[in-house]
């Protein structure tokens, strides 16, 4: 008896180009604040995005899609991420980039299908009989190996659970001990054990221990109320892709032939394009007709300065008026993204030059070292015979 919980497969996020974006920054009436939640300007698009959030929350968005249209670096991706932030982590958000779709091994439609399934969430509600509480004791009881030979095996585990109302001591099957170890359950953790399956879920550390010095980020949870043995509503948020993964895991006993025939099955989905149809935005006409289009517009210089300033703050880089001015001229000349990208190298250079504030000369030095896309593309166009076609 071993029941595993379906683990969500959301991709992990590092500090990235949009880490400063925390939400849409809207007022209660739905209008956008000039600068809030990491976003600056682009008021109309943000307001429109607010309505989209409402539509999704009120479950009126299914079967619809949104297209953000506007020049590069005008915040299309940033606003999409803000929508995801507003919706919270329970609504799956699946970012992908164009290059993920191009592979000689997997069909484009397959990649897209997987991503769609990653983006469709299900909430599973179940009433389960559980034992829940703070672990007060966790003792594996050993016995001589019944098969003979050396060593001992664990015959059962004694676990003590405490709630605000009472305590209980349970004698558990050794298979549960493995799960307890896998989840790294220790005394002082709040857990629940499903009575039917024996599945263990560690909910966090009991907040009685919240003051203890702890370097690792821990989630503290209150001591459960009620009895140790009770009925509990368990809510699990998974995506269709999570279920696919769970179902695809070998359960043992499957014969090779049926596996083979599954592998050999021809894949039927294939979209073929027609050459002479013009597709605005690179999207077929009939799909485009079904989209809501949100427009983003180029930024004014003041907004560019503000955005760069916010980025510098998020990256912990000290920069003052002159530096910001230099970067915003660069943003105007090439792109906002390039200017934002120059922040880190400029700060490294300023440190090398023995400063802790990024000065215009550091920025110029960085801009000399790292070319922007426009200049690079221009160089290619000017000297076509020197490069590979
Ligand atoms: N209104 C804004 N407020 C704060 N930061 C912004 C704003 N708009 C863009 N940014 C930041 O500027 C950078 C470029 O923006 P973003 O990547 O969203 O542009 P995009 O419209 O998606 O461009 P592309 O068409 O090239 O994909 C990102 O780091 C983004 O977080
Ligand atoms: Mg983008």
Describe this structure as you would to a colleague.
With 389 residues, the protein is an alpha+beta fold. Among the domains are: 126-238, OB fold (Dihydrolipoamide Acetyltransferase, E2P), CATH 2.40.50; 301-378, Helicase, Ruva Protein, domain 3. The chain has 12 helices and 11 strands. Strands 4, 5, 6, 7, 8, 9 and 10 form a 7-stranded mixed sheet that branches. Strands 1-2 form a two-stranded antiparallel sheet. α8 (301-314) packs across α9 (321-333) and α8 (301-314) packs across α10. The radius of gyration is 28 Å and the shape is elongated. The site of adenosine-5'-triphosphate (ATP) has 21 residues, from β2, α2 and α10. Adenosine-5'-triphosphate (ATP) binds next to β2, α2 and α10. It is an enzyme of class 3 (hydrolase). Proposed core component of the chromatin remodeling Ino80 complex which is involved in transcriptional regulation, DNA replication and probably DNA repair. Belongs to the RuvB family.
């Amino acid at each position: 008896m071993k029941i595993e919980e379906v683990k969500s497969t959301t991709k992990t996020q590092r500090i990235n180009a949009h880490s400063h974006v925390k939400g849409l920054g809207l007022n209660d009436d739905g209008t956008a604040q000039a600068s809030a939640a990491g976003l600056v300007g682009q008021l109309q698009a943000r307001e429109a995005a607010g309505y989209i959030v409402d539509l999704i929350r009120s479950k009126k968005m299914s079967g619809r899609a949104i297209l953000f249209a506007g020049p590069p670096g005008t915040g299309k991706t940033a606003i999409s991420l803000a929508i995801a932030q507003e919706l919270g982590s329970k609504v799956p958000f699946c970012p992908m980039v164009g290059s993920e779709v191009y592979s000689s091994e997997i069909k484009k439609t397959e990649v897209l299908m997987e991503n769609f399934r990653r983006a469709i969430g299900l909430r599973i509600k179940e009433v389960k009989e559980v034992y829940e509480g703070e672990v007060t004791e966790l003792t594996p009881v050993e016995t001589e190996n019944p098969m003979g030979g050396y060593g001992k095996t664990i015959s059962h585990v004694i676990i003590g659970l405490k709630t605000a109302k009472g305590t209980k001591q349970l004698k558990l099957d050794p298979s549960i001990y493995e799960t307890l170890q896998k989840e790294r359950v220790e005394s002082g953790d709040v857990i629940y054990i499903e009575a039917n399956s024996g599945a263990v879920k560690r909910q966090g550390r009991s907040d009685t221990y919240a003051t203890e010095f702890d370097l690792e980020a821990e989630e503290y949870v209150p001591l459960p109320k009620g009895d140790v043995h009770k009925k509990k509503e368990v809510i699990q948020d998974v995506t269709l892709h999570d279920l696919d993964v769970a179902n695809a895991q070998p359960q043992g006993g499957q014969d090779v032939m049926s596996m083979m025939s599954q592998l050999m099955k021809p894949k039927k989905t294939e979209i073929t394009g027609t050459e002479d149809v013009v597709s605005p935005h690179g999207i077929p006409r009939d799909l485009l007709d079904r989209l809501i289009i949100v427009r983003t517009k180029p930024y004014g210089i003041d907004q560019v300065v503000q955005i760069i300033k916010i980025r510098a703050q998020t990256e912990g880089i000290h920069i003052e008026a002159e530096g910001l001015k230099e970067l915003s001229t660069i943003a105007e000349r090439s792109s906002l993204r390039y200017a934002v990208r120059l922040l880190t190298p400029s700060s490294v250079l300023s440190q090398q030059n023995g400063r802790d504030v990024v000065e215009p000369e550091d920025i110029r030095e960085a801009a000399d070292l790292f070319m922007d896309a426009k200049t690079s593309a221009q160089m290619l166009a000017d000297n076509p015979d020197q490069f590979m076609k």
